[in-house]
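Shape matters. As here.
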Amino acid sequence: MAINATEKPLSRVFMSDYRFAIPSFQRAYTWQTENILQLVSDLQDAGSSAGTPYFLGSLILVRDGESKYQVIDGQQRLISLSIIIAVLRELETDPVLLQELDELIREPGNKLRGIKAEPRLRLRDRDAAFFRDYVQEGDLEGLFDLRDSDFETRAQHNIAFNARSVFDELAKLDDDERHRFASYLVNQVTLIIVTTDDLAGAHRIFDVMNMRGVPLTASDVFKAKVVAAMSPAARSVYAARWDDIMDPIGDDSQILEEFFTDLHLIVSHKAVCSQLLEEFRTDVLLPYIREQNVISFVDELLAPYAMAWRILDHPTDSMLPSEIVRQLVLLNDYPTGDWKPVAMWALVHSTGNLATPGVKVFTDDARNDAAGTGDGGKDREPLRLHDETRLRAILSALERVTGVDALNRQSSLARRTRAASAVRYLDRGYTMPQNRGFLITDDERRSALAHLRGELQTNARMNRLLLIRANEQLAGFRITRPRSLNAVPIIPKHVAKDSPFAAWPESVRDFWSDRIGNLVLTQAHEDQMKSLQTFAERRDRMLLPASSRRFPLTDRLGSIAECTPETLHGRQDETIRLIAEFWNIRYDEGHVDLSILDEQQLTHETSSATPNAKRVTIAQVLKAGLLVAGETLVWERPRKGERWIATVTPEGRLRMEDGEEYSTPTAAARAVGGTSAGLNVWKRTSDGRKLSEIWKTYRMRRR
């Protein structure tokens, strides 16, 4: 079994020497929005330091012919990198750079060398055509126009949502920033390419690389530096004390790295820490080492913050007051942890004995014993809070800005910059109103409510979070949650012909498909409701688990006999108002009630001029003058002998020759031709331009 391993930048990976294929036995694409945005954020951080390479791990490949390789390990990164490059290509206006980015994704071919023109990466059969058509071939406009019901697999859903998120993130950069990012991505991001001729051998390599050996963690490295700086008499005692403090956090290297990165932010007030081992040593440890006071580092910094970290992970097991526990539970709802440094600071500075051995921090004796108290659970000192009011105020403000930033899809860098600012002002003793880290501007309020009012660009976890906030605001107290809790739509994702919802105009169903007024918090799962087509059936299934009725907005379904568009309008308005009140963003500084404004009013008055991946509507394109009411579109399929004609209506719909109207090009294409590639098939008869080109022109006008 011949094995070869070389380190290469992406410019040498996405080239004609490699044609990657994902074998059918591999799992699907599973990266979520937070995963790919974290990668983008990490690359931005690393790229801010000139000449700093970024190692992205290894690819394990099996040769499958001339320049062909099956991917055994690394498909998640290859797909995600392809999405990032496709978005960079979509945003690019320089034709030379656009071509260079395109060639990273698609092999242009070379007849003399016998190289076939084709995508550089082929996914599993179920997702290959979807990924090729929308991402590799560059139909991102068509991708952004798709609904949840258009995705045949979970992987397709992940691809679409990740592409939207990356577009929103990279569109915030100006041309120079984006070019620097692209250059760094291509030239400084490296992979170890491990190739072999034998599939079984590749799996053995994978096992060895992932299972054998235990590399040093950040905790191991810092422990060695700290203990080495102590007197010989203290070393053995504090080596054991370090283990007592850190062992309960676990030995997961990523979690330990996150802890020390957060501790670095708290001490240094720096949002970015691209080289943890070096920057933590310089910014945090070195002052203690110079003053020959590393024992204070362990006792007064490491110990209390490690305990605070553990409390944040298990708030319901802590001895904190119930209202504090509730606030920590709310913060744990978020998929990202950029709020943690502020919460850790607040806990440490609001408790008088958090790191004192023998303090009863948790309700579970075993968990207390894991802190190294060694007293077997006897006569522990209770945890003391000396400023509960201030702690509650900080956590409330923190949850508020975390929620608004999540709705506004702020980058990890922006969120951590806010956290660093909040800690800096807390350390300086500023009052809460003076702390700029907790400030929410009118633009941020309007943007957040516009996201709530329009089509949700959030994932299932965030939808669930939003409904929890609305229900608890209505109830006036923390609601005990069942283990399984989902945000389920009232209108089925796939409406059958015999469903009462089929009588609703397609444009109305389309309007409500991805809006918060159509979602219900319930223990039921959408998979259990696929076959339920009437409102009564879906309502009764949502209300079947008794725990679902704990949520007042869900419980109210029981009093609704028939669902109408007006029903959804009412739920939408109330849910948005409740969330706005929960986060105190209902009114702007001029006391205007933002919760009653429509999406257009909210977005019109914001200062943002950044394009985003929100679906573009026919009405918006009409208003911009890029389409004209009454003009015709055509979709020709010569091989099938079909020709479809649609007329643009003044209301922003497409009217077919049989009189049926559709609110989106995708819906029209799906109805007449059974395809979801709507923007790419319809052409304007006057000049032959595809709608995807017109839609892109509209989207990029915001730049």
Observations:
- The mean pLDDT is 88.
- The radius of gyration is 28 Å.
- Residues 415 and 691 are 36 Å apart (CA to CA).
- The first helix runs from residue 10 to 13.
